[in-house]
Each structure stands twice: as structure tokens, then as C-alpha cells.
């Protein structure tokens, strides 16, 4: 193998990158390929998905909120094995962006923990891997999240948009990026504002799991039969997080106590109320934006929930549409984001700035691990 060819730092021009993301709702690992020079998106490639089994999901979930110990080790093993499996089909790229799995996130207290060893993955796949995207930002005083905003900026430019838009990712947690695509550099003043909006699907999934043994409320079917309990919703909105100025970010279970507010409700009323809480958190978030965007482009699994989409449409002052409206793939956007960010790291470009994470100065997070040379074929290698 020609090492110079495989070294993303040495190679010039456009790079082909694969991004791998395992999000907070623990459905599985998404992988997606993009071509980029680190600023513009030149095109999108293939994608893949590796679902977690029920047992794997339990092992990873047992690590949530923990910083070390046997649960973290067990979760790490599952994450590494699942990524190695799905990434075997994506080694024909210049670089892999490996997010890992967030187990704990408390940027101002203990830091942020994404498990999975990117250096080991680089060796096992004989492909350069960029990983540990969030630590440098946290060390420089940032929230370490959200990190997709620089990619959202590139997406808005790729789609040829000129007026301000908001990207709304509804995964386990919700996060919003307000983008002004007329400003060419994402780190320039006024180009971006980003932060987490509140809990999104995670509490709904937890309710479905604990009460009905379901992984999620497919199509919002259960919520559609319920009534929103306004008292619980008001208590939820009284939580100081919503009035706090950005930057701000959340851990998956930060709102667990609020979610207990629906404990006495019927399954359908509880589902409807948790769904309304997600939409209400987004409505609160819009008040922090510099101005009302032309439209809200929804990405992540929440856009498949028509009840949630309807609640958003009635509570926001602009059209709310799935991101497919601008020709992008809302199931793969986060994986694509970490492919894009990997190339930015390889190119020495920043991946976050004051208006996205609160970091003091624009920073390029991420560690580049090149594979050791003299490899056997990837499929014969143990991780
Ligand atoms: N058809 C559907 N109906 C209702 N909800 C759905 C549907 N499809 C997906 N979801 C919800 O979306 C979730 C998955 O969303 P997504 O893949 O964006 O999350 P994630 O990437 O793990 O999270 P995060 O962005 O917080 O890291 C599912 O767990 C489920 O709650
Ligand atoms: C610490 C962490 O992993 N945060 C995730 C999580 O999931 C959604 C939201 O909370 C967002 O802040 C972030 O993920 C996306 C991919 C981001 O960094 O942009």
C-alpha cells in the first residue's frame, strides 16, 4: 500500500470520507460516504447501517451516565465490534470519521465521553481514522456539542440556499442549527448559531420500552390516541434550561426527572405529552435564533413521526419540512457530518466555534490515527 496515498493529511484536493455515527437513541450504527475538500461538499456516496440487537442495546444503555468501570468496558466492546463489522465495507476511502458512542456528557464538570478506540479501528481497517472529535472543544471551554453545525452550513450552501434556514435534528436529544448560508465561512460572525433544544425521542423510546416493550412509538401511533397533559408540559417548560442563552448542550438523560412527570398518565396520554415536550423545547429554542428562518429542515428519526411534525408545524412561525425537501438524506445526515468533519480535521480546519459550542476560539477537534503499516487483509484482522 502506498502510505502517502492513504495519508489524508498528505493528499491534496478532494477526499472521499466515510463517517460512522452511533447516536443516543441506540438504534444502530449509520455509515455514509461523502466527497469534500473540507469546505464544499462535492457529492454524496453510498451508505450503510448496522442495527444493534436487543442484547447489545442493553449493554450499551447500561453504560449511559458512567465514566469508567465494567459497564463502560462492556459497552465499548460492543461499539467497537459493531463499527468494525459495518466499516469493513467502507475501507475504499481516504479517511474514516469515527464518532464513537457518547456514554456521558457533562462538559463543565467531568467532560465528555465517546467510547471506541479509533487508533485500533485504523489498524484493523488499514485506513486512517479521525476520532475523539469533542475533547479539544471541551478542553478549550466549549460544550463539545453539537458538532454537526459546520456540516449543516456546508449542506445549506450545497443546496444553493441563500436565506437563513434552521436544521433541526430530532434524535434521542434534539439539536438546532440556525444557518446564514450567505456568509461563506462557518466560523465567521453571524453564520451559525447552534445548541441542543431539549429531549427528543429518548424519553418517548424509554416510555415505550418500559410500558409496552416497544423500541419506539412508530408513526406516533400511541401518541395520536392521547391528550397532552398541560400541567406536566408547563412544569417541563419551567425548567431553566429553556430560558438559558446558548451555547448549551445536554446529556441523553438530563431530563429524566421531568419525564417522570408523565408517570401517572395512561400510555397514550404519556406518549402525547412527551411528544409535545419535544416540540415545545424546539419552540422555545426558536426564540434564541437571530431571526425567524425561511424554514425548519427536520433531520433524524423524529421526522418520521407525523404527530411530532404536526405539533412542530402548529407551534413554529415558519414552515417545517423534512430535509428531503432540499434533496438530502435525513437518516444519514449525522454520519455524513462526521465524514465531513474528518476531512476538516485532516485539513487543519476548525470544526466548532464560539457560536456553535461556546468554545473560546474556533477549534479543530479530533485525533488523526494512521494505520500501522504491514497489514494483513482487513477481514483477517482481529480488532
Ligand atoms: N417511523 C417512526 N415513527 C416514529 N418515530 C421514529 C420513526 N423512525 C424513527 N423514529 C424515532 O427516531 C429515533 C432514531 O432517530 P435517530 O436515528 O435520528 O437518532 P440518533 O442518531 O440515535 O440520536 P442523536 O441524534 O440524539 O444522536 C428512533 O429511536 C425513534 O424514536
Ligand atoms: C454529546 C453528544 O454526543 N451529543 C449529541 C447528542 O445527540 C444530539 C445532540 O445530543 C447533539 O448535541 C450531539 O450529536 C450531534 C450529532 C452533534 O454533535 O451535532
TrEMBL record:
The reply to whether Transferase figures as a keyword in the UniProt entry is: yes
Q: What class of enzyme is it?
A: transferase
Give the GO biological process terms: 1,6-anhydro-N-acetyl-beta-muramic acid catabolic process; amino sugar metabolic process; peptidoglycan turnover
Q: So where does ATP get bound?
A: 23-30
Name the EC number(s).
2.7.1.170
The record's catalysed reaction(s) read: 1,6-anhydro-N-acetyl-beta-muramate + ATP + H2O = N-acetyl-D-muramate 6-phosphate + ADP + H(+)
Query: Which keywords annotate this record?
Result: ATP-binding, Carbohydrate metabolism, Kinase, Nucleotide-binding, Transferase
Query: What pathway annotation does it carry?
Result: Cell wall biogenesis; peptidoglycan recycling; Amino-sugar metabolism; 1,6-anhydro-N-acetylmuramate degradation
Name of one Pfam family that matches = AnmK
- A molecular-function term among this protein's GO annotations: ATP binding
Against SUPFAM superfamilies, the record matches this protein to: Actin-like ATPase domain
Family listed: Belongs to the anhydro-N-acetylmuramic acid kinase family.
HAMAP family per the record?
A: AnhMurNAc_kinase
Q: Provide the function of this protein.
A: Catalyzes the specific phosphorylation of 1,6-anhydro-N-acetylmuramic acid (anhMurNAc) with the simultaneous cleavage of the 1,6-anhydro ring, generating MurNAc-6-P. Is required for the utilization of anhMurNAc either imported from the medium or derived from its own cell wall murein, and thus plays a role in cell wall recycling.
Mind telling me what this protein is named?
Anhydro-N-acetylmuramic acid kinase
Q: What is the native source organism of this protein?
A: Sulfitobacter marinus
Amino acid at each position: 500500500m502506498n502510505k502517502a496515498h492513504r495519508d489524508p493529511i498528505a493528499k491534496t484536493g478532494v477526499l472521499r470520507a466515510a463517517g460512522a455515527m452511533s447516536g443516543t437513541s441506540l438504534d444502530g450504527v449509520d455509515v455514509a460516504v461523502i466527497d469534500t475538500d473540507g469546505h464544499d461538499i462535492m457529492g454524496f456516496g453510498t451508505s450503510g447501517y448496522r442495527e444493534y440487537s436487543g442484547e447489545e442495546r442493553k449493554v450499551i444503555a447500561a453504560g449511559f451516565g458512567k465514566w469508567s468501570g465494567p459497564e463502560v468496558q462492556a459497552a465499548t466492546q460492543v461499539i467497537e465490534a459493531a463499527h468494525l463489522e459495518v466499516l469493513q465495507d467502507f475501507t475504499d476511502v481516504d479517511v474514516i470519521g469515527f464518532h464513537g458512542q457518547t456514554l456521558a456528557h457533562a462538559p463543565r464538570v467531568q467532560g465528555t465521553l465517546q467510547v471506541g478506540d479509533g487508533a485500533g479501528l485504523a489498524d484493523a481497517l488499514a485506513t486512517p481514522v479521525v476520532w475523539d472529535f469533542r475533547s479539544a472543544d471541551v478542553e478549550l471551554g466549549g460544550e463539545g456539542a453539537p458538532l454537526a453545525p459546520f456540516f449543516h452550513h456546508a449542506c445549506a450552501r450545497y443546496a444553493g440556499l441563500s436565506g437563513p434556514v434552521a436544521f433541526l435534528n430530532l434524535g434521542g436529544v434534539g439539536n438546532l442549527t440556525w444557518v446564514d448560508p450567505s456568509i461563506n465561512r462557518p466560523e465567521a460572525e453571524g453564520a451559525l448559531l447552534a445548541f441542543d433544544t431539549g429531549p427528543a425521542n429518548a424519553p418517548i423510546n424509554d416510555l415505550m420500552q418500559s410500558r409496552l416493550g416497544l423500541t419506539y412509538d412508530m408513526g406516533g401511533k400511541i401518541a395520536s390516541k392521547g391528550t397532552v397533559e398541560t400541567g406536566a408540559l408547563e412544569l417541563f417548560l419551567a425548567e431553566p434550561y429553556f430560558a438559558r442563552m446558548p451555547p448549551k448542550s445536554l446529556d441523553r438523560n438530563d431530563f429524566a426527572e421531568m419525564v417522570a412527570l408523565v408517570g401517572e398518565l395512561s400510555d397514550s396520554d404519556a406518549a402525547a405529552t412527551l411528544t409535545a415536550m419535544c416540540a415545545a423545547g424546539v419552540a422555545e429554542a426558536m426564540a434564541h435564533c437571530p431571526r425567524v428562518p425561511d424554514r425548519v429542515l427536520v433531520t433524524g428519526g423524529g421526522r418520521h413521526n407525523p404527530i411530532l411534525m404536526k405539533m412542530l408545524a402548529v407551534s413554529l412561525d415558519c414552515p417545517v419540512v423534512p430535509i428531503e425537501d432540499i434533496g438530502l438524506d435525513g437518516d444519514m445526515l449525522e454520519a455524513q457530518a462526521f465524514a465531513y468533519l474528518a476531512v476538516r480535521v485532516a485539513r487543519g480546519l476548525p470544526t466548532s466555534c464560539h457560536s456553535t459550542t461556546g468554545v473560546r476560539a474556533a477549534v479543530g477537534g479530533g485525533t488523526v490515527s494512521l494505520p500501522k503499516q504491514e497489514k494483513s487483509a482487513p477481514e483477517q484482522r482481529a480488532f
